[in-house]
């Protein structure tokens, strides 16, 4: 295209066309650069996740903790099978030997866990939650084998400390948190309860727990409930709920805890006397030599 030397309008129009072209090219370059940067940021995060998994596996190998690739079940039917399941966090932090647990269930929606104080119930509950999260993020699981149905969301309801601001009581705070969880719950979610609703007397606590457990089970929400409220556990067991599994923290006759969960009838005691004797009984004095 030739423009006459004195054609100012022509030069101005050509300049405008060049500017518009440069704007389009610059915009395309900026978008391409942004897409590439976002891709590499996402890649960095994903690679960081997999590198962290490799580091975790290496540490667990040094501690002789088994690992397996879990088998997820994409069905609404309940399924939970594992062999030698470890609490990954405890395996990383404890210098002592960590005890594993084994369980095989099908079509079971509710798990009630009772038994002795300091018997490993909370550790077992944590191992279940960690294994479910690790499986659903594509990780290995700290077990010989692990298979479970897929959960949409995972919620936890653990007991908390007293409200230091004195805004509400402990039971009030627990019920408010439960209300917040219920507002988000949908079928096929998982809820882990650890000694919830123990801030009132056993009769009222049993009534609250029974109402919540029954409602969640009817809504097809999978749940694990660790409780010392034996009034609830024993009464619920007597009603015979076919989709419920009852686990007990094993305790030997001499009071020793094995930290294993076994299927069985709910216990009506948490063996608090064992802890009482351990704390208040003075240690035996060595015999004096004559």
TrEMBL record:
Record domain DNA mismatch repair proteins mutS family: where: 108-288
GO terms classed as biological process: mismatch repair
Record-linked InterPro entries: DNA_mismatch_repair_MutS_C, MutS, P-loop_NTPase
Signal sequence range: none
Keyword field contains Nucleotide-binding: yes
Keywords: ATP-binding, DNA-binding, Nucleotide-binding
SUPFAM superfamilies: P-loop containing nucleoside triphosphate hydrolases (SSF52540)
UniProt key word ATP-binding: yes
Record-level Gene Ontology MF annotations: ATP binding; ATP-dependent DNA damage sensor activity; mismatched DNA binding
One protein family per Pfam: MutS_V
Entry GO terms, CC: cytosol
Domain of life: Bacteria
Protein name: DNA mismatch repair protein MutS
Annotated organism of origin: Klebsiella variicola
């Amino acid at each position: 295209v030739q423009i006459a030397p004195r054609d100012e309008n022509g030069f101005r129009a050509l300049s405008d066309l060049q500017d518009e072209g440069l704007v389009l090219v610059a915009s395309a370059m900026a978008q391409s650069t942004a897409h590439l940067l976002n891709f590499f940021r996402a890649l960095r995060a994903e690679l960081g996740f997999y590198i962290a998994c490799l580091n975790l596996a290496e540490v667990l190998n040094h501690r002789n903790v088994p690992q397996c690739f879990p088998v997820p079940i994409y069905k609404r039917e309940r399924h939970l099978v594992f062999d030698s399941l470890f609490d990954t966090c405890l395996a990383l932090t404890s210098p002592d030997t960590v005890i594993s647990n084994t369980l095989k269930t099908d079509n079971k929606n509710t798990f009630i866990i009772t038994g002795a104080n300091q018997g490993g119930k909370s550790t077992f509950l944590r191992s279940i939650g960690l294994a479910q999260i690790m499986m659903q993020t594509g990780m290995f699981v700290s077990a010989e084998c692990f298979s479970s149905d897929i959960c949409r969301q995972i919620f936890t309801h653990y007991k908390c400390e007293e409200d230091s601001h004195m805004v509400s009581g402990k039971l009030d705070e627990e019920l408010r948190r439960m209300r917040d969880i219920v507002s988000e719950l949908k079928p096929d979610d998982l809820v882990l309860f650890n000694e919830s609703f123990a801030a009132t007397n056993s009769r009222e606590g049993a009534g609250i727990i029974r109402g919540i457990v029954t409602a969640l089970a009817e809504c097809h929400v999978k749940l694990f409930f660790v409780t010392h409220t034996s009034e609830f556990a024993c009464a619920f067991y007597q009603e015979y709920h076919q989709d419920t599994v009852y686990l007990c923290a094993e305790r030997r006759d001499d009071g020793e805890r094995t930290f294993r969960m076994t299927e069985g009838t709910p216990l009506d005691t948490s063996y608090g006397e064992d802890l009482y004797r351990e704390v208040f009984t003075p240690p035996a004095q060595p015999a004096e030599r004559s």
